[in-house]
Amino acid sequence: MDVLMERIKEAEHFRDRYFKEHPNSTLAEKSKSVRERVIPLLQDIPLEIRGSSSSSADYCLLSGTILNICTEYEPECEKYLTKAVKLNPRLTNAWYELGECLWKREDYEIAIDCFKKSLSVERNIKSLCSLATALRQMALRTKDAQKAAELRTEASRLCAEAVELDGENATAWYALGNAYVTDFFSNGQTNPLYMKKAREAYEKALTVKDDRESLSPDLHLNYATALKFEQDFAKCLQHLFIASELDPHFFDAKERYESLCIYLKHFSEAIQRKGRLKSKRLVEFQKALSNIPSNKSTQQQQFLSRRVYRNSAARDSDDRKEEKQLTECDFESLHEGPNEDVYIVGKVCGIVPNADTVPLLVHSRIYEYFTLKFRHC
Fold first, then answer.
1. N or C of the chain: less Cβ packing under 10 Å?
2. Can you name the residues that pair with 325 across neighbouring β-strands?
3. 215 pLDDT band (50/70/90 cuts)?
4. Where are the chain's structural domains?
5. pLDDT higher than threshold 70 for residue 301
6. CA 310 → CA 188, 219, 220, 316, 342, distances in Å?
7. What is the topology classification, in CATH, of domain 1-122?
8. Contacts of 287 (CB under 8 A, 6+ apart)
């Protein structure tokens, strides 16, 4: 049995590292190769498990687990796992594997039911994270805003529970990072703390010794998106490159990496060339800026003032808000990170187009990626 379990791990490793070893292959070629590696494992199931009627549920579970390594839906996998839960409804792993199998078939509601039944037998990290993902899927599909918010809240709670069960589990931390990103975009990007927590959760997932998660293009691509939002381009490129190596086809990881490289190159060139403005034009800009009076008009002061709220719940309460005046500063006074309550008067010297921007809308492609397109968590 130990030999079989080792071969199962090798098959999973082969699947997860496939594009790193075969960078020019297609998704269809990967699917075929993984299946060819998996099917023979069914013959390696020990005779004591295959031949004993008392352990037939275990045999069906093991067979279904093996077939679930395949990247695409396998009808035989569903048959084995369905039989396993009928023979022994207390097999929490069988319910989980059946949920994953049905997920590949895009039967989300039944998959959710399977994850819930797995958790009713035993609270486990895999089912908690998969159920959280499924609930985020349902939140996107419902037109009821309140219901969608409730589903996202429940998904976040499940991810937090997973981390509480095992604070050294990479899958749990990765799922929690996804929950924070979802909360960030679904709340109109008004609370940067969500993105900060997401980044910390992803970093925790990467530091935990879990080879499967470290080989997940999902984790590296999501982490790269969080890094890009914070404009940490060096680390962003690093993890985009890793994601493109692990699966260049996953959400165009390779194209995203190349696109960001081109953007940063153009941005650097624009700075060096001062936006390609002629010296005479730059002098005109400098004179125009130096002639701006330091004492602003009343209308300008009103425009530059803003109301700062301690929290979103206080927006409708006049006695909980305070006014702050923005202070003018120059570029040399800015520091890395957020610069609050200041403004700069300047001139636009050039514009660098960016085809792959981090979105500013809730229903953006990135938002759908974080919540709709997760494969594992």
1. N
2. 305
3. confident
4. 1-122
5. no
6. 17, 33, 33, 12, 18
7. 1.25.40
8. none
The string of DSSP codes covering 132-157 is HHHHHHHHHH-S-HHHHHHHHHHHHH
CA distance 363 to 368: 7
The helix (run of H) or strand (run of E) holding residue 322 is strand 321-325
Element (H, E) at 305: strand 305-309
Largest CA distance in the chain: 91
Rounded to 5°, angle at Cα 104 from 84 and 61? 15
Q: 318: helix, coil or strand?
A: helix
Contacts of 85 (CB under 8 A, 6+ apart): 91, 94, 95, 98, 117
Q: Which amino acid is at 341?
A: D
Distance (Å, whole) CA 211 – CA 205: 11
Tell the residue number behind the tokens 């002629």, with chain if given. 278
Listed in sequence order, the residues at least 6 apart from 190 whose beta carbon sits closer than 8 Å to its beta carbon are 312
Helix (H) or strand (E) holding 325: strand 321-325
In single-letter form, the type of residue at position 242 comes to I
Q: What is the mean pLDDT of residues 38-67?
A: 83
- Which amino acid, residue 240? L
Beta bridge partners of 309: 321
The residue with tokens 């994953």 is: 100
Q: For residue 299, what pLDDT is reported?
A: 54
pTM of the predicted structure, to 2 decimals: 0.78
Q: Report residue 367 CA to chain centroid gap.
A: 9
- The distance from CA 271 to its chain's CA centroid, rounded to whole angstroms, is 32
pLDDT band at 293 (very low <50, low <70, confident <90, very high): low
Residue 306 phi, psi (nearest 5): -150, 165
CB count within 10 Å of CB 63 equals: 22
- Cα–Cα distance list, 343 to 231, 329, 330 (Å): 19, 6, 8
Residue whose C-alpha is closest to residue 376's, from 62, 131, 195, 158: 131
Q: Which amino acid is at 281?
A: R
Q: Helices in the chain by DSSP H: which ranges?
A: 2-16, 18-21, 27-38, 47-50, 56-67, 75-87, 92-104, 108-121, 125-141, 145-165, 170-186, 192-207, 211-214, 217-229, 233-246, 253-272, 279-290, 298-304, 365-372
